[in-house]
């Protein structure tokens, strides 16, 4: 089964970290990605640029509205994602539990329609 | 530049549609993805199962918390995504505006980092010395 891990993070936290802490944080994500790859469950994954650089589009009464920023005005924003392939939800949850994001944000696990 | 188009949709709407209307919307999404494919901009797409099947995991005070449901308790939820490669944000916005989701929900357009510290050199993501 294919699952999407949505990484919800507090974007304001990163700039406050020291360089050593940032290095440590990135090393943790790299190690996690490597572990996913080694186990053969990694399909794809990426960081997203900060949500302030995003835009949202909707059509309201036939008129296109383009707004700056993300859809949800929440404390935590989607900062990245992984697509993984695991036998079942339990195993997807156990991979999600190893993601560094769970220590400082939250990981939402969603099964893909296929 | 790579962009992800995040489709936020009202999940309660789908079951209320007639079969004919559902067929219409599925056709619209299919046509949209075909148009992106023909233009050579579509890298990948995915639809997500509805949020009652979602789970959220976090660790607080060294304890793992596993909760049923999505991260955000919002009216509209992430229902799918498209990853596209286009020259600039304007082009990404114009594809987003053609999405059937823009008619009934919201499309969030987010630039993706070119490369990622997950797989590449990390120095460009660090504070300057």
Write structural notes for this entry.
The complex is a heterodimer of chains A (114) and B (129). Chain A has 114 residues and is of the alpha+beta class. Chain A has a single domain, classed as Alpha-Beta Plaits, CATH 3.30.70.1060. Chain A is built from 3 helices and 6 strands. In chain A, strands 2-5-1-6 form a 4-stranded antiparallel beta sheet. The longest helix of chain A has 20 residues. Chain B is of the alpha+beta class and 129 residues long. Chain B has one domain: Dimeric alpha+beta barrel (Alpha-Beta Plaits). Chain B is 26% helix and 33% strand. Chain B has a 4-stranded antiparallel beta sheet. Chain B is flat and about 50 Å long. Chain B starts with a strand and ends in an 18-residue tail after the last strand. The interface between A and B is large, with 54 and 52 residues. Strand 3 of chain A pairs antiparallel with strand 6 of chain B.
Physical arrangement of strands within the biggest beta sheet of chain B: 2-5-1-6
Write down the CATH class of chain A: Alpha Beta
| Number of helical segments with 4 or more residues of chain A | 3
Give the name of the CATH superfamily of chain A.
Dimeric alpha+beta barrel
Work out the radius of gyration of chain A: 16 Å
Q: In the CATH classification, which architecture of chain B applies?
A: 2-Layer Sandwich
Outline type of chain A: flat
CATH topology of chain A: Alpha-Beta Plaits
Approximately how much beta-strand content do the residues of chain B carry? 25-35%
Task: Give a topology summary.
The complex is a heterodimer of chains A (114) and B (129).
Chain A: E1 2-9, H1 19-38, E2 42-47, E3 55-60, E4 63-68, E5 77-85, H2 89-98, H3 101-104, E6 106-113
Antiparallel strand pairs in A: 1-5, 1-6, 2-5, 3-4
Chain B: E1 2-9, H1 19-38, E2 42-48, E3 55-60, E4 63-68, E5 77-85, H2 89-97, H3 101-104, E6 106-111
Antiparallel strand pairs in B: 1-5, 1-6, 2-5, 3-4
